[in-house]
Design goal:
alpha+beta, lipopolysaccharide transport protein A fold
């Protein structure tokens, strides 16, 4: 008859060793997963911070100008509205293309014109304000580009590379330089803003003025860029 000898202490030690090894393995996996999760969270936070910094640095972007395709061209478009004071306006152009998509409906304009109480076009005998423009119908903002020229009933005449007309607020502004003529002489500046129905004209940045005794002479009527 064969007798088997058991060693309880030895078996218990082996079980404890296996349990300890399994626990250590689980702890290692948890540490790895935790490290991966923390790294992913750090990447997401860094990306969000970068996007916020880039958005803040760039500031509000003006509408980009896109060429008008023949298939989408609208001839003689017409947009109407009123400013905060109830004064009506009409935006027209020789042609237009309404952009698809986006939050606000934007329309690219060719030779935009404006029928408004205190802004008049200067290009020859027409009411064209510029060679091209973009109209934000929701915000009622007309952004003008290339050879911008306009006048006010008070006798001010301006020429600028670009301008932004907030029809809702009745404000015209530009920050790419301006030259113009007033009833009393001529002005040049780096930026300008026309407010209160052209009763208030603000010029900033390297402002230069020329005052003509007795007002402008006939030779000074031609506006120069």
């Amino acid at each position: 008859m064969t007798t088997a000898a058991f060693a309880p202490d030895s078996l218990l030690g082996e079980r404890r060793a296996r349990s300890l090894a399994s626990a250590r393995a689980r702890t290692g996996r948890v540490r790895v997963l935790r490290a991966v999760l923390l790294a992913a969270m750090a990447l997401v936070a860094a990306n969000a911070l970068m996007q916020a910094l880039m958005s803040g640095a760039s500031g509000p972007a003006e509408p980009a100008f896109t060429p008008a395709g023949d298939a989408e061209r609208i001839t003689n478009p017409r947009f109407t509205g009123r400013d905060r004071g109830g004064t009506s306006f009409v935006v027209t152009a020789e042609a237009a293309v309404r952009r698809l998509g986006g939050v606000n409906p934007l329309t690219d304009l060719e030779r935009p014109a404006l029928d408004y109480a205190w802004i008049e076009g200067l290009r020859e005998a027409s009411q064209a304000l510029a060679e091209s423009g973009v109209f934000d119908e929701t915000a009622q903002v007309l952004t003008l580009r290339t050879d911008v020229r306009f006048a006010t009933p008070a006798g001010y005449r301006f020429a600028a590379p670009s301008a932004r007309i907030s029809l809702r607020d009745g404000v015209v502004s530009g920050d790419e330089g301006v030259s113009g003529e007033a009833p009393w002489g001529a002005v040049r500046a780096d930026a300008f803003e026309v407010q209160d129905g052209a009763d208030r004209v603000i010029l900033t940045g390297d402002v230069r003025t020329r005052i003509y005794p007795g007002g402008r002479t006939p030779d000074d009527q031609e506006i120069r860029p």
